[in-house]
Amino acid sequence: MKTLIKNIKEIIGLSNNQKSYIKKGKKLKLIESIKDGWILIEDNIIVDYGSMDNWNGVEDWNNLEIIDAENGIVLPTWCDSHTHIVYAGSRENEFVDRINGLSYEEIAERGGGILNSAKLLSKTDEKTIYQQSANRVEKVIKYGTGALEIKSGYGLNIKDEIKMLQIIQELKNNFPIQIKSTFLGAHAVPKNLTKEQYISNIINDMLPEINKQKLADYIDVFCDKGFFNPEETERILEAGKKYGLQPKIHANELDYSGGIQIGVKMNALTVDHLEFTSNKEIEILKKSSTIPTLLPGTAFFLGLKYPPARKIVDSGLPIALATDFNPGSCPTGNMSLIMTLACVNMKLTPTEVINAATINGAYAMGLENSLGEIKKGKIANLIITKDIKSINYIPYSMGENNINKVIINGKIYYDSETNY
Ligand code: NIG
Ligand code: FE
Fold first, then answer.
1. How far apart, in whole angstroms, are the C-alpha atoms of residue 209 and residue 380?
2. What residue numbers bound the domain in which 403 lies?
């Protein structure tokens, strides 16, 4: 079955290259586009595109489904490479505690934070957690997200970590978008165990079981002040590697934790957060293929300083941009709002944030061969915008959803007119 998207004001995020490449340094500003375009899709794959003045798309109009872009701009869907979208309940009380002067770390020390979410998760039945999480996934697709990475890490014991990973598996089975799952047992230490005991649980009990059930694509550790130090992180990642799990780690959110160094040493696909990044860490990243992933929603919501994005990019590195959607430090999965925060607070341009949220996000979750740009052979996960003059309008129009339709696997998944 072929589908033609016609009446496209502009197609953004094209690629003609044989091979995809991650956009870094000055190239982060470059984005290919054509005006007045069409896109041809066969089944779920982009097979051709072009501009209306050199129409060579289809000879056989029979059996052709038409999607009218109504003069909207078409872009690849967002690749949100860092989320904790599976969780139970919410933590607005801590939000108020922070307004009243407590810090994120002080709340964690009092048993709030991640431990609070772990408590909520353990007393919520699996069906309810699935439903709450599925509602969030549904919502982010309407915001234009076509690929998601989801972490465990609110279980903190084998039963609940497996429960979380199985819920992620169920989401993978039930949603048409691409989902990657990451085992984040080392998110915090549960109250009833010493850190050593818990690390031994992760290595000797959780990892073998996760491997047996094939529940994770990546492994993560919260390598930061008050959580796991570099030596502990290395041991856990080393154990994950034995099961073929590449690291994607939380690093340098709360301090110069050594997380970036250990991520690079362990060949992490990404190091994420990076609020505390100096020239030293930038030099180390430059000698690696580890992708710095920035989560400005968290810096905003916790009132932290922002990562030095400009310095990172101007040094020639790539960046990926993600939401960190979670109940404590970023309770939204709205990528275009995250893009606004990135532009305003990290001085990235709209083009840079779009690249960081599409092709570079795809790299940050191992999906660069199938998503992240509009290219022949890639999956047709596309955003059709509504009422916008240029892509600059997306981050400019803070908090708005400028989406007319979201196409997933070549089919309309969300239509703003019917809201479904
Ligand atoms: O990425 N930094 C660690 N983990 C999450 C926050 C988790 C939470 O507060 O529930 C983050 O910000
Ligand atoms: Fe996170």
1. 35
2. 2-76+372-415
The per-residue pLDDT for range 82-93, each reduced to its tens digit, is 999 999 999 999
Bridge partners for 2 per DSSP = 42, 64
Residue 39 domain-assigned?
yes
Cα 226 to ligand 2 centre (Å): 15
Q: Which atom of ligand 1 is nearest to the CA of 91?
A: 10
Residue 33 lies in a domain: yes
For the chain, how many structural domains are there in total? 1
Q: What is the secondary structure of 382-408 as a DSSP string?
A: EEEE-S-SSTTHHHHSTT---EEEEEE
CA 223 to ligand 2 center in whole angstroms: 11
| Ligand 1: nearest atom to the Cα of 108 | 9
Question: Taking the complete model, does pTM exceed 0.90, yes or no?
Answer: yes
DSSP state of 310: H
* pLDDT band, residue 57 (cuts 50/70/90): low
Residue 6 sits in a domain whose CATH number is: 2.30.40.10
CA of 288 to the centre of ligand 2 (A): 22
Residue 123 lies in a domain: no
